[in-house]
Amino acid sequence: MDKYKTRMGDGSICYQTAQEIREDIESGVAYAAKKAKIEPLTKEEQDRIFEIITAPGYITSVDVEKLVVSTTDCGAAPFCREGAIPVKRSVEALIHERAFCSDSYDLGFTEYTYKAIKPIVRYEAQEMRNAQQQNVMPILYGAMPNMGFYTQPDGMFENWSELIPAGEIDRARAAQEGAMENCIKDILAVADEMAAAGADGINLDTCGASGDTDFLASLRATEEISQKYPNMGIMFGAAGEFVLGMHGKLTYDGKRIAGMWPHQQGEVVQKAGAAIYGPAMNTNCNESFAWNISRVTTWVKKTTETIDIPVHVNCGMGVGGICMTEMLPVDVVCRADMCLIEIGKIDGL
Questions:
Q1: What is the DSSP string of 134-194?
Q2: Is the CATH code 3.20.20 the one for domain 4-342?
Q3: Residue 13: which region, alpha, beta or left (left: phi > 0; alpha: psi -120 to 50)?
Q4: Strand partners, 255
Q5: What is the pTM of this model?
Q6: Which of 180, 190, 182, 179 has its CA nearest to residue 108?
Q7: What pLDDT is attached to residue 1?
């Protein structure tokens, strides 16, 4: 029986029959629809995913009319952070623009956290000015809210990840609320300096990594930045397909944050004033690529139907249907992109 070469969620090569691939597609779609309580993909859409996965050749592509733009987070990683080529970030931005043909660039610092950036924000602002003077493409400044950095021993608040298992729920919630206020202040302080330096946008990356308080901090910061600097776009990237309820009682716009799925996250992100929403959906390493990308595409399609702002799906190591590997296999990346563009109707990657 003929088998198609594909991959598992961990990147390992596997071979599946047409029937096995179709079954994984149906299973992935059903899983996503049940979890988020949304409509499954149609049979025609599932058939198209099958065609994309089994397309001959190592690399596939959408038609030129369907090309989408790209944004990045952690933009300095390829050169500066990993030490491959020792160049300044403002120079790396030029390489991204004039050699890689990137659509935008994230001038993030090595320690990609707003708390760590605040003490050196004036130096970072100068780097932003240098980049703005040389580049044509939009230059954003990005970092993570990363509320875990506000816990002891590095921060001043108790660690809720230790308090919750100990049954100290009230103390855990109080610690999260205190950390949230400090996190918002740090994000706004950095945004002020970047606005003065001419930044085209602010990237809030991996929002919700520390749970619903982390997500709410990002929403409130987005709201304030968008009102204060209406011409500076905000890219709001999520941390996972649903928001962890580390606090459990927090709401935004009358909606409980804990347990929000991508389309529900997108609604509050749009309400807060973000210019771009980046849903992040984690890869299951024990399932096939067919299962993972079908699951992701189901959530993404609902998201693009629900909100009006551009949707740029996080597609990289372990998210967006992509394998959980450092070096991403191109055969999976291009097929995942095709599914998200043709069926998910995304605006960017």
A1: H--S-EEEEEB--GGGGBTTTSSB--HHHHTTTT-HHHHHHHHHHHHHHHHHHHHHHHHHH
A2: yes
A3: beta
A4: 252
A5: 0.94
A6: 190
A7: 62
